[in-house]
Design a protein that fits this description.
This protein is mainly α. The chain is 46% helix and 6% strand. It has 2 domains: 69 residues, no CATH class; 60 residues, no CATH class.
């Protein structure tokens, strides 16, 4: 399998952060299309994800490549800039710690972070979208 820098160069993405949630730290090579679904080991079929996002990633078949890319590399305009604003708000250490929490604790953390981000004019739906959640998942 290619090195992480080769994968990052191929996609024009950072080498030291999760492409889905923007957590800085160790990343794993994740197959966009699973090997069991005829996915290849080349950089075109790999993304760099944190352990949590990699574990949450659904299995995608060969005919679901677009869905796999949408999961690993969200294309919502400005999403990463808004995540950067949120990280500036809460601090990189908190964000990286948050990424490793169990799902229930992550949802509780999102409730607070969603409220605070809305007060600062950051679209809280961005937080939910990068974690595959919606408002009903974090309703108080």
């Amino acid at each position: 399998m290619p090195r992480v820098d080769v994968i990052a160069d191929h996609h024009g993405r950072p080498v030291d952060e999760c492409w889905r949630c923007c957590a800085v730290g160790p990343v794993e090579r994740a197959h966009l299309v699973d090997r069991t679904g005829s996915g290849l080991d080349g950089p075109q079929n790999l993304a760099l994800l944190c352990d949590f996002c990699h574990r949450l990633m659904p299995t995608f078949r060969f005919d679901q490549g677009d869905k796999a890319i949408a999961y690993a590399m969200p294309a919502e305009p400005g999403m990463h800039q808004q995540v950067d604003q949120i990280i500036d708000l809460v601090g990189r250490d908190w964000w990286n710690t948050y990424q490793g929490l169990p799902q229930e604790e992550r949802v509780n953390g999102l409730r607070t972070l969603r409220r605070d981000s809305a007060l600062l004019g950051i679209d809280p739906r961005v937080l939910l979208a990068i974690h595959g959640l919606d408002d009903q998942d974090v309703a108080s």
